[in-house]
Write the structure tokens for this entry.
Amino acid sequence: GDSVTQMEGPVTLSEEAFLTINCTYTATGYPSLFWYVQYPGEGLQLLLKATKADDKGSNKGFEATYRKETTSFHLEKGSVQVSDSAVYFCALSERGSGNTGKLIFGQGTTLQVKP
Amino acid sequence: DVKVTQSSRYLVKRTGEKVFLECVQDMDHENMFWYRQDPGLGLRLIYFSYDVKMKEKGDIPEGYSVSREKKERFSLILESASTNQTSMYLCASSSTSRGSNQPQHFGDGTRLSIL
């Protein structure tokens, strides 16, 4: 079945460092891909999405490009801030489920940014 | 903005009790979901619903049931709570318009402790 694999955390960076969180997927067909962020004590918030190959999603300085050839959707940010400390989840939409909107989530990657 | 509201942020119950977790969304979404989130295990889908009175089992339905009598409300029921159901519970909703490209919108979660 469909699956999402994220790099294991925690990832610890200094403020203004470059961030990459790797995400690869296996899926039949052409899923949509999402990144969600969860700040401490809160639910998940949609960070960005891409719906087809070569699409680039972006939001709040974060970017991710839908790479069909490598089945990847890596999250990047050029300069992280302490306020970016959170758990990041990669997800794909499950096709062939009759528009039920089911998502498959990765395990989550914890990012800690130190001043 | 989509609002998904979970009835309690924190809940403490005793083993054997019947527990109700309530979730309401205000965007007329067709799909609603219940997840539990545990350290190291990511998000696991318990049940979801794609229409009023319709429900489908997710990956870990054992020990849970759900109810969707109205479109905006999706309830998770722990029939006889056990300590291994201590967890963070997250509710989400999504629209079926434009197919499976639609993201899920999450509530803030209910942290449930079973003593």
